[in-house]
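Severity: low
Component: inverse-folding endpoint
Summary: output formatting inconsistent between runs
Steps to reproduce: submit the following structure tokens with default settings.
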């Protein structure tokens, strides 16, 4: 319930984010720490990664750090500028002067220009609301994975700063408070305008061996093909302070987009911390064709949106499927425009993330050596009930040699993509076996097929990740792919044998079923024979098709033709 307060944030309070610790990090020795902005950049080579209350917090904070870096170094302008930064251990030294210059804009509690907030933001009744509105692991009405149930009564200044950044990035949609000065307000409310900008994305970033490498690997140069960097591109803290409401405008570049003010926020605090918030909608931004500005997601073509808006070509962010591990979607990360599916006019149906296009350029032009390992990290939020709640947070990674991204040596990437296809086909055959065993037992239930496929992918995931990480070491990627096919065949064959062994007497006995080839007596023996033929065919065994045809043709509809497991 809201409460009315007066004279909040009075008394000249300050929380300087450049000097006060508020960003959580993991050090190389495994210790977790909390650092200021100055300390993060000064110690970047000693930090393993940024961490947060949620994986989405890490991604949102990383984008702020990238905006700071782009702005402080004024670039990189091109690959040569980037190379100088990469090879200079002191490349972040200019950030000290930068923070001195813009220090007031990094004060969380500043009376006139509070960081990522709108000074004086208030509702007509002067209400101040629960911090549940910005703490994403306590969504309104349905807490989950939380030690704070049922409400968040108070936050430290450091934690509040992290949630302010997260709210601009991932806030839910739904009805928001109508603040004074917002012309969109009707009867004290602003009706749904969508989630925070980053909530639209299937977030992707490249992780190096430490925070320094991670920042630089994602620091896309201004001359990158396919991305727009306007001369006036600047982050939120170098723009005029935002007032209530929002403005319809296009982003000017990555510095603008990484700090996009999706919401209007005002924290209410006292000497002991933050105890309330006012939250409203900020600058709206639709997702259509933002691929020319946003490099940290993959994109998919949407013909439905093309028809709806009368546009010749529309790309939308490709989000992450919580039920599909990142390795199974490897093609969306490593396939370039030459390898992805195209329409009849040669227009790509999907685009890989701009940050991976950038790393591809770095390895192709020799700035990163073959054998350099990166992790492609994937982060996203899945919303439910008209995007008014967060249902799930998705986080995964794929480790790979940068040679997979080489623009003039695509065979490694192609074999990696095709190896995922090998796993898909093998697991499909396993699911078909589970379904055939059900039919042989006289049952009609798709659950065994689903469960078999889930088990198949779960068993293959670890071996594939190991295989992928070592693929770049191979002199011949085709030979390494053949070895993978043998491993898949062996693994899935054993899983199939276990399914047959567990099928029971009813499946062993069998029954007559109708197939595309006519009526046959299906039992566990025939189901297993079909499975072996399908598996062999999908993994390149030359005699698999003949075996499948022989098994089908040699069986009649009578019990005398039963084949027992």
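Observed output (run 2 of 3):
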């Amino acid at each position: 319930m809201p409460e009315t307060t007066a004279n909040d944030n009075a008394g000249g309070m300050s929380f300087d984010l450049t000097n006060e610790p508020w960003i959580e990090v993991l050090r190389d020795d495994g210790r977790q720490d909390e650092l200021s902005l100055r300390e993060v950049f000064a110690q970047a080579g000693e930090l393993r990664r940024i961490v947060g209350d949620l994986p989405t917090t890490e991604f949102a904070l990383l984008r702020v750090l990238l905006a700071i870096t782009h702005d402080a170094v004024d670039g990189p302008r091109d690959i040569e500028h980037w190379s100088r930064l990469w090879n200079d251990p002191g490349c972040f030294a200019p950030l000290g002067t930068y923070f001195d210059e813009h220090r007031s804009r990094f004060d969380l509690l500043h009376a006139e220009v509070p960081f990522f907030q709108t000074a004086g933001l208030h509702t007509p009744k002067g209400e101040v609301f629960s911090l549940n509105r910005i703490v994403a692991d306590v969504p309104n009405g349905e807490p989950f994975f939380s030690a704070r149930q049922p409400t968040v009564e108070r936050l430290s200044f450091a934690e509040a700063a992290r949630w302010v950044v997260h709210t601009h990035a991932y806030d839910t949609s739904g009805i928001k408070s109508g603040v004074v000065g917002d012309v969109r307000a009707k009867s004290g409310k602003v009706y749904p305008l969508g989630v925070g900008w980053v909530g639209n994305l299937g977030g992707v970033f490249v992780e190096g061996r430490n925070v320094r490498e991670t920042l630089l690997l994602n620091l896309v140069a201004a001359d990158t093909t396919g991305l727009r960097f306007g001369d006036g591109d600047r982050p939120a803290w170098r723009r005029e302070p935002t007032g209530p409401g929002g403005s319809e405008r296009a982003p000017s570049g990555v510095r603008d987009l990484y700090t996009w003010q999706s919401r209007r926020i005002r924290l209410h605090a006292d000497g002991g911390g933050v105890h309330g918030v006012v939250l409203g909608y900020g600058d709206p931004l639709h997702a259509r064709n933002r691929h020319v500005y946003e490099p940290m997601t993959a994109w998919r073509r949407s013909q439905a949106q093309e028809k709806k808006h009368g546009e010749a070509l529309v790309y939308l962010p490709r989000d992450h499927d919580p039920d599909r591990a990142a390795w199974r979607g490897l093609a969306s990360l490593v396939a370039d425009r030459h390898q992805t599916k195209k329409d009849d006019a040669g227009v790509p149906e999907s685009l890989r993330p701009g940050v991976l296009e950038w790393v591809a350029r770095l390895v192709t032009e020799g700035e990163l050596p073959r054998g350099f390992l990166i992790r492609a990290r994937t982060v996203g939020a899945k919303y439910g009930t008209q995007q008014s709640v967060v249902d799930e947070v998705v986080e995964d990674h794929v480790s790979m040699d940068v040679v997979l991204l080489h623009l003039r040596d695509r065979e490694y990437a192609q074999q990696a993509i095709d190896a995922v296809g090998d796993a898909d086909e093998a697991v499909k055959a396993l699911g078909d076996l589970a379904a055939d065993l059900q039919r042989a037992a006289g049952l009609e239930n798709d659950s065994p097929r689903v469960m078999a496929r889930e088990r198949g992918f779960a068993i293959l995931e670890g071996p594939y990740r190991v295989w992928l990480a070592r693929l770049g070491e191979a002199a011949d990627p085709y030979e390494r792919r053949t070895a993978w096919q043998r491993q898949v065949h062996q693994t899935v064959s054993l899983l199939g044998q276990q399914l047959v062994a567990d099928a029971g007497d009813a499946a062993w006995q069998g029954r007559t079923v109708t197939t595309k080839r006519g009526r046959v007596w299906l039992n566990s023996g025939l189901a297993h024979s079909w499975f072996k033929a399908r598996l062999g065919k999908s993994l390149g065994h030359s005699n698999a098709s003949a075996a499948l045809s022989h098994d089908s043709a040699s069986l009649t509809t009578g019990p005398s033709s039963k084949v027992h497991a």
